[in-house]
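call fold(seq) -> tokens
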Amino acid sequence: MPRKRKDELPAKQERALLALLNEPSIEKASSAAGVHQRTMYRWLKQPAFESKYRKCRRDAFGQAVGLMAKYATLAVNTLAKAMADPEAPYHVKVSAATAVLRFGREGIELDDLAARIAVLEAAADEISTSKESRACLHTAA
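ret:
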């Protein structure tokens, strides 16, 4: 029998994850996965299941974001044309300008947060590595 990877879940939980990603509600996901709704809620409270579910959702969302990136330039150009169009109603120009400014600000905020998180993760890794080294030294002594 092949060994199970550390992050691998039982087949029934893997089916439940797939159902959670594809169904609009936990009730429908439970039904699609063939498990009771209470079981699904219990699994969602388990750290390993919940962590894998979040990772799967991030991966799925990442694909959507990648597709959005493909059309981002077109979207910005459309907003710019609406702002510059002398025939466009004033409210259209204001809406387009507001969207450009809002998305620009949000992009900057996300970049800042990503940089701050990277610094915190590096510090946490350094602390973890330091503790592991001390534990190894303590065990060896």
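The two ends are 39 Å apart (CA to CA).
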